[in-house]
Amino acid sequence: MSAQASADDERARLEAAEWFARLNSKTVSTDALRDFRVWRGTPGNAAAYAHLEAIWKAAEPLTTDTDIASAIEEALTPARTGRSLGDWLQLVVRSPLKFAVLALLGLGLLSLSAAVLAGLGGQTYSSGLGEQRIVRLEDGSQLRLDTDTQVRVRFSNDARQIHLGRGQAFFDVAHDAARPFTVAADDTEVRALGTRFDVRRDAGGVQVTLVEGKVRVRQTEGDHQWTMAPGEQLRVTEAKPSAPDQVRRIDVAAATSWTSGRLTFHQTPLASAVAEVNRYGRTKVSLDAPGLADRQVSGAFDSGDTEAFVAAVADLYDLEADRRDGQIVLRPVGSAAS
Predict the structure, then answer these.
(1) Between these two residues, 109 and 149, which has the higher pLDDT value?
(2) I need a surface site. Which of 11, 242, 307, 312 has the fewest CB within 10 A?
(3) What confidence score (pLDDT) does residue 322 get?
(4) Torsion-angle region of 102 (φ positive above 0: left; ψ -120 to 50: alpha; else: beta)
(5) How many CB atoms lie within 10 A of CB 58?
(6) Does pTM surpass 0.70?
(7) What are phi and psi of 103, to 5 degrees?
């Protein structure tokens, strides 16, 4: 085989992997399908795609193996782990399925793109700043992603696993006693069978709010566990891993108002309300008013409507809004800018 023919075959394999990833996503446009048909009409491309489909079908039994999925997932993020793909393949082949893995690698599994291999680790969904997104899962469950949120979903025959990488999500879980539904965020795991709950992950820890049903929350560090009832909220903090905040009763409607596009504050410290508003807008608000950070504010605002919040707070506490460089600084009327 000439060098040119070899290069053409390699190109066809790589492009086939990219097309496989696109066509197996949740949404495929008609333009993409038309472009695929044109691409497949090129000599060699159809054969490369058929070969990849055969490899993927042979690999399907491995997609439920948690060791292999975890190793591949981490191999695809070497910057985070500091390990190379070769390092992780050494870990993969030590599993009981090493011979099957090696056989698939021999067939050319490594020619798959990162997007295809990531399918072994689940499907990732995300929302942008100020955006909300609804995701309907194959089991009938529904996720609502809040602003700047990312989740990874991985289903197997005996488990439904969600990883909350950042942000906040509301889970409306379809009942399936044979496949427990778990949400992992940092070192906190929330387990439910059929219920509705909210999980938020931020720099301070993980917060769980239960609306309906029953969940069990487990902190892997120290192995603490709590069973929550509807109307309760639990915050697990990194600062106190051995004695996290206790479960408390809350106003569920206010705590989950973000799911209807509203932010509801009820006797909320002003500094906390400002931080919450900042999660939804590109224009950030800061408070330059000593002594007001702990003053309480109540009210409801459309998420992302920073100006309405600023106007209400300025009127309530006799503040003025200094707008510059894409920011809004709230300070007492007549005070000099710092």
Answers:
(1) 149
(2) 242
(3) 92
(4) alpha
(5) 14
(6) no
(7) -65, -45
Q: How many helices (H) and strands (E) does the chain have?
A: 11, 18
| Whole-angstrom distance, CA of residue 274 vs CA of residue 280 | 11
Domain extent listing, the chain: 3-121, 123-250, 261-332
C-alpha triplet 95, 69, 108: angle, nearest 5°: 80
DSSP 3-state of 38: helix
Contact 287, 271 (CB under 8 A): yes
Contact 217, 195 (CB under 8 A): no
Contact 219, 241 (CB under 8 A): yes
CATH of domain 123-250: 2.60.120.1440
What is the spatial distance between Cα 277 and Cα 267, in angstroms, rounded to a whole number? 15
CATH code of 261-332, in short, is 3.55.50.30
Are the C-beta atoms of residues 85 and 114 closer than 8 Å to each other?
no
Largest Cα span, the chain: 81
Say yes or no to pLDDT of 125 above 70.
yes
Nearest to 194 by CA among 170, 217, 221, 213: 213
Give the mean pLDDT of 297-301. Answer: 93
Residues whose CB falls within 8 Å of the CB of residue 94, separated by 6 or more in sequence, listed in order: none
Q: What is the pLDDT of residues 4-30, one digit of tens each?
A: 566 677 778 878 877 777 676 555 566
Nearest in space to 113 (alpha carbons), one of 7, 10, 185:
10
More confident call, 68 vs 304? 304
